[in-house]
Protein: Phage metallopeptidase domain-containing protein
Organism: Anaerotignum lactatifermentans
Amino acid sequence: MEVNILGTRYEVKFENELNDIRLGDCSGYCDPSIKKIVVDDFKGKNNHPLSIGDLSVLQKKILRHELIHAFLSESGLQNWSENEDFVDWIALQMPKIAEAERGVLDGIWSENQKNAKKTEPFYD
């Protein structure tokens, strides 16, 4: 699968340490030099997918973390991209930020709809 990161195509793959040695000591990685994100599928020799309570939730968290690395790198913020604490914080807060944004936008949309005159067109 591919994802667009600020105009740059990144390949996204789910692999394990049997197929990708770099997963031997991590659950995922972003390699901006080859525009690739890899998330562990937990089917390797040291892991079993059933040993994780909710594998899809874990993989989504890992993917979100690696996407943040890619966005920072493509933004020219390589130093920030290499700061795991910073990337972890953004990845952890991103769903909360998106929820807050949705709440505000939904509220604005509802208010605008309530205040709009029925005879005004949606266009000029």
In short: The beta strands are 2-5, 8-15, 28-31, 36-40. The chain has a mean pLDDT of 87. The domain at 2-115 is CATH 3.30.2010 (Zincin-like).
